[in-house]
Design a protein that fits this description.
Layout: H1 2-12, H2 23-41, H3 54-66, H4 71-98, H5 105-111, H6 116-130, H7 139-148, H8 155-168, H9 178-191, H10 199-214, H11 216-228, H12 235-245, H13 248-263, H14 268-279, H15 283-298
Helix pairs in contact: 2-9, 3-4, 4-6, 6-8, 9-10, 9-13, 10-13, 11-15, 13-14, 13-15
Length: about 300
């Protein structure tokens, strides 16, 4: 009975269990995630990231906390919403062009804003179903929340919204979450004896990851200007930088590096080398990412980074 209780408690927890899987399996999983990340980056468009505005991230974070969702579910909700909205914009663009009408980005984005909240909440509900062993958001919970905001959607409209998202994404909603990259990297570093994934380190990583999403615009603006050594990037440079903003592996090493620096600055150089050796990302790129995160997370203390 005691054993069953422990297993149940483990499945109900959102805490990762380090050291429970063989080293070879973990290494293979990291390589698969890196390949998946590269494939996604090869297909991003110039508008990718436009639906990760601060208010959207804050909305998802607060509602996920209200509904007791897992760490990964909140980020998956953001990624699902982003991919769905980009698909919706693309379909609308093709439709308007077929009719010979203007299809500029601003006007198309404005046309779909009326259903923002409905689709956003549907994405949160879908993300909750991916972690079904933890906490699923029911239709009644969603409808009550929407009603509190002044919306009067029906169960049928809610189901239609969910189905529209699933169809638009070809039912492929189990999208990668940045928290998964962080946890996997910590696991690999721990197995290789580079870095012990402590609870304190994991909590710091979670805190900085949340801040990085909330301060995304400022952090990546600093990173871009730092990398090109120019305070006024051109349109071409902005376009080429989109894959950098969407790179989950770079985000993971930046968050782990920044967290390690805050907790143990004396061992920072060694951690930097380990992260670079493990991911293949240059030490210079990691340093720039870490500095950008820290400058906007802890303020002027990092101005000379």
């Amino acid at each position: 009975m005691g054993s069953s209780t422990n297993v149940a408690a483990r499945y109900q927890s959102s805490e990762p269990v380090f050291g429970a899987v063989a080293a070879g399996v973990i290494q293979d999983a990291l390589r698969h995630m890196a390949k998946e990340n590269e494939q996604y980056l090869s297909g991003v468009c110039n508008e990718t990231g436009c639906f990760k505005e601060t208010w959207i991230v804050e909305f998802v974070f607060l509602l996920s906390e209200k509904w007791s969702l897992t760490e990964s579910a909140r980020y998956q909700a953001i990624e699902i919403f982003e991919r769905f909205m980009l698909t919706l914009i693309k379909e609308l663009s093709n439709f308007t062009r077929a009719k010979g009408e203007d299809s500029n980005w601003a006007s198309m984005k404005q046309q779909i804003e009326s259903t923002y909240v409905l689709h956003l909440v549907s994405c949160i509900q879908l993300a909750s179903k991916l972690s079904f062993h933890y906490s699923i958001v029911s239709n009644n919970m969603v409808l009550r929340f929407l009603k509190s905001l002044g919306f009067s959607y029906t169960t049928e409209e809610l189901l239609e919204s969910e189905l529209a998202i699933l169809k638009a994404l070809h039912f492929q909603i189990n999208v990668p979450a940045p928290s998964a990259y962080i946890e996997m990297l910590l696991e690999v570093l721990g197995y290789n004896g580079y870095l012990l994934p402590t609870k304190q380190l994991l909590e710091m990583c979670r805190h900085l990851l949340g801040l990085t999403y909330l301060l995304r615009s400022s952090i990546y603006d600093t990173l871009l200007k730092s990398s090109i050594k120019n305070a006024s990037p051109s349109e071409l440079q902005l376009a080429k930088f989109v894959p950098v903003k969407e790179d989950l592996m770079l985000l993971a090493v930046g968050v782990i590096g920044a967290s390690s620096f805050l907790l143990n600055p004396e061992g920072w150089n060694q951690v930097l080398k380990y992260l670079s050796d493990t991911t293949g990302i240059s030490q210079q790129s990691i340093v720039e990412a870490v500095c950008s995160i820290l400058k906007h997370s802890i303020g002027s203390a990092m101005d000379d980074c």
